[in-house]
Amino acid sequence: MSVNTLNGERKLKTIGIIGAGQLGLMLTEAVHGAGARTVVLDPDPQAPAGRAADERIVAAYDDAAALEELCRRSDAVTYEFENVPGSVLIPLAERYCIPQGFRPLYDSQDRLREKDNARSHGLRTPAYAAVDDEASLRSAVARIGLPSVLKTRTLGYDGHGQAVLRTEADIEKALPMLAVPCILEEFVRFDYEASVVLVSDGRRTIHFPIGRNVHRDGILDLCAVPAEGMDAALGARMAAESRRFMEACGYRGILAIEYFVRGDEFYFNEMAPRPHNSGHYTIEGCTTDQYRELAHYLLGMPLEEPRLVAPTVMKNILGQDLAAAEAVAAEAREGVFVHLYGKSQSRPKRKMGHITFVGMTAPEYEAAWADRFVK
Ligand code: AMP
């Protein structure tokens, strides 16, 4: 992607990315594939996308001057980090090209606002209530019942900032969480979890095949596509409602929505206006992937409807599984794609990479591969 300058030189387009983690890394690879460049901003000088990007800015996500510099160097800016403050991003969005805008971030930064927004746009959610102190917690428990899940309204991720309440003792234990505003949610006894990733340019909305997700300790462990056990009508309804939701909210760019599925009903859990962990499988599992479609959107190129190439399973590699993943990589097996993000520090529960198994179903993965990783 380039524009011709007066002296005939090609000036490549530049995509700015707020955040330089693995999502920024894979987005950078897709932007490069489209013939453009990236500049990333991240407080960590060792962040994975920093090495792949054409330029990087080492600064905090709320550093207004650094974010302005990112915008100045970019033809379009996107984010892989959700907690960029509106006070910084909104003024920048008025002066620079941030085509997704602040709205989808704003709507997803607070779990209460996120669920209110989902509900007001027609998506079913688990029962929930705002909780600010012990009295409101107790009245929310009286209404919603036990078990239920107490979550901080902001800054929670991968199961951080949440507690399952099953007994009176759990309520007592959770009281310190109320130092910040919280939300109490009905504990959904779901059959399974599922997610859908969509990309919209305002004229056309595409979506990737729905994944069935398994979380462990609040962190995504596996994503299998097609979603086993999901009947076609439910899948079609989930895709159609997700698309209608995205369009009704007026969101552009990328959106991932996570659902709980119970019987023939599904419940909105949360959304993220950025590439999603459950969409990693699309890189090899689909004819086009979430990063490529986001890159195309940001570069003003047409979107392409993805198709699944073959049944695919994605296994997340956390620190405790890094050695096993390296061993799998060394075997160079057909249809097994090992992605390691090159993070300099490995820790249990830190996302270090993922493996995509193309041409494999979830039961086949369980029978042949699951034992290679920490249970
Ligand atoms: P979240 O960060 O809200 O996506 O939560 C992480 C994981 O915790 C989810 O993917 C579920 O596996 C589990 N979880 C969160 N909220 C609930 C809920 N209301 N009912 C049952 N499980 C939940």
Task: Give a structural overview.
The structure is a single chain. This protein is an alpha+beta fold. The chain contains 13 helices and 19 strands. The strands form four sheets. Strands 11, 12, 13, 14, 15, 16, 17, 18 and 19 form a nine-stranded antiparallel β-sheet that branches. It starts with a strand and ends in a 7-residue tail after the last helix. Bound molecules: adenosine monophosphate.
Quaternary state reads single chain
CATH superfamily of the largest domain: ATP-grasp fold, B domain
Rg value: 21 Å
| Helical content class | 25-40%
State the domain count: 3
> What structural category do the secondary elements indicate?
alpha+beta
Bound small-molecule species:
adenosine monophosphate
User: What is the name of the CATH class of the largest domain?
Assistant: Alpha Beta
Compute the average pLDDT. 96
Could you say what the CATH architecture of the largest domain is? 2-Layer Sandwich
Cα distance, first to last residue? 45 Å
Q: What is CATH's topology name of the largest domain?
A: D-amino Acid Aminotransferase, Chain A, domain 1
The main pleated sheet reads as:
9 strands, antiparallel
Q: What is the helix tally?
A: 13
Low-pLDDT stretches = none
Outline type: globular
Count of β-strands: 19
Portion of residues in beta strands equals: 25-35%
